[in-house]
């Protein structure tokens, strides 16, 4: 059975929320997003928010502004990855890597995400590197997990270098192999 990026992301998000509920009795929590408005917030703690994913309700359901700014065509899978839902970033494991899956929190965050993707692509162009679109951060600020805009493969890349390692043939396979990680706030 073939599934879409949106379906794979929704399934992973449901697993992530379920794991939080099973381990803590509460939805996912974030201290980084405390004080930042979002329709995802279901409860506020002392210095954190509890959130649940919401349908992506913003007018632009694509990253066409990124494509237009650089006069390139983006891999089609990147659009639904960032426009299926509003959610907090989600911690996960993938083949021994602990990562934070980047998600859109609110309208301002969507604008900031597009600006960051443009900046990332401009830097790569300046350094004569093949274009990638980041989808997850790692502990190291020098590495990230990205979608290769030429091949559609998911890669581990070192920022500003040609060093790359293919992790998955595409975004759907990558998402389907993620294991949610719950780190309750102290």
From TrEMBL:
Primary location recorded for the protein, binned into one broad class: membrane
Lineage: superkingdom: Bacteria
Protein name: Protein Syd
A GO CC term assigned to this protein in UniProt: plasma membrane
Keywords, ordered alphabetically: Cell inner membrane, Cell membrane, Membrane
Subcellular locations according to the entry: Cell inner membrane
Cited function: Interacts with the SecY protein in vivo. May bind preferentially to an uncomplexed state of SecY, thus functioning either as a chelating agent for excess SecY in the cell or as a regulatory factor that negatively controls the translocase function.
Similarity section: Belongs to the Syd family.
The UniProt record lists the keyword Membrane: yes
Pfam families assigned: Syd (PF07348)
Bilayer disposition of the protein: Peripheral membrane protein
């Amino acid at each position: 059975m073939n599934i879409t990026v949106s379906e794979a992301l929704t399934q992973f998000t449901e697993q992530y929320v379920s794991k939080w509920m099973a381990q803590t009795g509460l939805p996912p929590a974030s201290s980084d997003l405390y004080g930042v408005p979002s329709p995802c917030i279901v409860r506020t703690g002392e210095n954190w928010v509890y959130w649940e994913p919401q349908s992506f309700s913003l007018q632009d359901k694509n990253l066409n502004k990124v494509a237009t700014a650089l006069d390139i065509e983006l891999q089609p899978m990147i659009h639904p990855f960032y426009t299926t839902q509003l959610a907090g970033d989600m911690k996960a494991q993938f083949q021994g890597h602990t990562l934070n899956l980047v998600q859109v929190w609110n309208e301002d965050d969507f604008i900031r995400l597009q600006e960051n993707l443009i900046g990332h692509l401009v830097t790569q162009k300046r350094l004569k590197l093949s274009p990638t679109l980041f989808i997850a951060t790692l502990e190291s600020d020098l590495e990230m997990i990205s979608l290769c805009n030429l091949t559609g493969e998911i890669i581990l890349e070192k920022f500003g270098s040609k060093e790359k390692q293919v992790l998955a043939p595409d975004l759907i396979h990558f998402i389907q192999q993620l294991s949610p990680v719950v780190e309750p706030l102290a």
